[in-house]
Structures are given as C-alpha cells and as structure tokens.
What does this fold into?
Amino acid sequence: MAEPRGGIGGAGQVPVEQRFYGRRKGRPLGKTLQRLLVETLPLFHLDPDVSLADQFEHDPGDVFLEIGFGGGEHLAGLALAKPDAGFIGAEPFINGVATMLRHINEQDLKNVLLWDDDVRQVLPKLPDCCLAGAYIMFPDPWPKRRHAARRILNPAMMETLARLIRPKGMLMLASDDPTAKGWLLQAATAHPAFSWTARCPDDWRNRPTDIPETRYMRKAHSEARTPSWFRFERMC
It folds into this structure.
C-alpha cells in the first residue's frame, strides 16, 4: 500500500437523528501510537469514493465489515485467518484505531481498510451487495429504555445491512450483556431479509469456530458474563 488513501476523519456531518454518542478519545496516546496514526493510518484509510477492489493490494473475493472493532484484536484475527479476503473496520474511538494499527504492523496485515469515524457516514456510499458478511461484536449495551435510540443495531441499520450484504452472506452479532442480547436479537429477527441460523441452544451459547478468541471474551467468561453468538443469513 504505497499510496495514502483519503485523509484522517469522516466526511460530512451526521444528521441530528443520527448523532454519535460513543467515546472518541481515551487516555493520551504514547509516541508510538501517535506516530501510527500520522504515518500508517493514511495508508489503510477507507476512501468511500474509490472502488473497494482498488483499495486492497489484491482483489478480494469476499469483503467483510466489522462495526465497532474496539481495540482490533478480533478484526486482526479475522484478517490473519483469511488473507485472501478483505476486511473493513469502522471505529470512532481513536485509541482503538491506534491499537488496531499496531496489530496491522505487528502481524503485517495487508487486507484491512479502516474508517476512523461514525460508520453511518460511509455506509451509504458503499455499493449494493458488496459485503460477504458483517460483524457487530459486543456493542455498547445502552441498557436504559430512554437510550434505545443510541443502540447501533436498529431498523435503519438493519435496512442498510440488508442492502450491503449479498444473498447467502452472514451477519454475526455477539454480546455478553443481557439487555444488549435482547435488542440485538430483536432487531435482527424483525427484518425479513435475515434468517437466524440457530437450530439448538449450543448454536448461540458456544463461540463459533471461525470467531477468534480475544482477551475481552476470556475476561467476560472469567467474570461470569456469558457471551451469546447470533449468526444470521442474508436471504435471497
């Protein structure tokens, strides 16, 4: 990836009804992570105005999206396991973006593009059926009813994902929060374009074999916060 693609930051303003409520910054970054943001992020930055195929070093047969990749451990694990596929990661928390860049450097990942802002800014620019799948892993739970509008998975997002994920593609959801499990499952099952693939309790109780285990997942188990895994298929 010799040529930088796009600048740092999102394009345009999010409408009032789509205001972003999550964190954008945490602790001050060390010099190494600051340098990664300045020097490395432009090389992997998603440009929504350029064809996805032209932004990867190879033309990936499958492209996957992770919305809210946190520190990037899961996204990096996916990219490492599937080098022939392409991965888009969206995360507005700049500390998480910097950590993901460290994963990219340490693991020499070539098949990742990053969007360091609200994912809703870029999704409308992506073409129909461009994704083989999408991941929303352990999103902020927003458990209070008055904060329901802040939840990332809602009818509007489901409609967008139905447009972007190709037929037979997958939508993978996970949470260790009881309230979040409920609204994730409710939002996804309510959309007619998606079918829940679970056939028995083990299907949502056990981590799928193609999901990399992360420190967060291990910590959840150690603290008796049991994750659930909901895999949906995009119907024809």
